[in-house]
Amino acid sequence: MSAPDSTEQPLLVVIDPVARRVDGESVRIARDVLCGGAVAKICFPEGPQDVERALARRGRRRPVVIGDDRALLRVVHLLHQRRDLPEVPVSLVPVGALPAVSLARALGVPLGTVAASRAVLDGAERRLDALVDDAGGVVLGGLWIPGPGGLNRTPEATAAAEPNGSPETGIADVADVTEVTASEGGVGDHQSWWSPAARTARSALTLLTGPAARHQLPSCTRLRVEADGVLLVDLDEPVARVALCAVDGQAEVTVHTHSAELPSVARATRVSISGPSFHYRADNVLTGPVRTRTWSVREGAWRLVLPRG
């Protein structure tokens, strides 16, 4: 459901340092379009602390992120920590190539600089669900847990998993999302960015995992998965993959095992996963190892400005 427009509010434009380094020309174009259409304060943060200070002093300005998925996630997490996330509309102008902006694409944000900037000025807010974990994390698109053979960790992915890793580390080791088509539940190039196929987090999870991740299941791992206290799989049954996303106000968990031809799917408000140390990818960011984690769905947890229609 659409939220009231906020296009008349002044803007706080947060320009990620990685975006300035990767594609300075796109950053310049986005800044010119935004400043030409609204009263905007430009912020050039050098690190997360600068972003946090800018958000704390934003006043009535609504945040606009110029950068990749990581820059968006950083702002969302900071707003969540400040308990401002449900009431503050967020906008994004993606800068970077796939897969660094695959979450933006999955959420329905145009990847073109001018189109995304115009959407910031002329778009409409939409309330979207999210998953919040017991460690304070927020998942916008979806998460999945591969077995030990499914991580293929690169140095970049390892840095992304470290709690004190560089905020400028890009997303690595992600399936090619450009191959996803509308028939697979994704968004084809011929479709509008806010087409029906792109409206659910399930579609976002499909885009983020990509065809290779869906069709080449990794090695087995042992996990205990519970949905609202109901046991879906226990440690004695090897798991190939677990996927989780927020759909229509509920958490949808999909469990692939090698003993069953089809995955089991359940809906719940709270999903707990535990077992030997495991890693998981949330919005394409590698996290872990952890021994247990619980996610709860938050309906209408955040507001994203997207193109109209």
TrEMBL record:
InterPro entries named in the record? ATP-NAD_kinase_N (IPR017438), NAD/diacylglycerol_kinase_sf (IPR016064)
- Tell whether Kinase is among the UniProt keywords: yes
Question: Looking at the record's lineage, which domain of life comes first?
Answer: Bacteria
Q: Name one GO molecular function term.
A: kinase activity
Keywords assigned: Kinase, Transferase
Q: What is this protein called?
A: Diacylglycerol kinase family protein
Organism of origin is: Streptomyces blastmyceticus
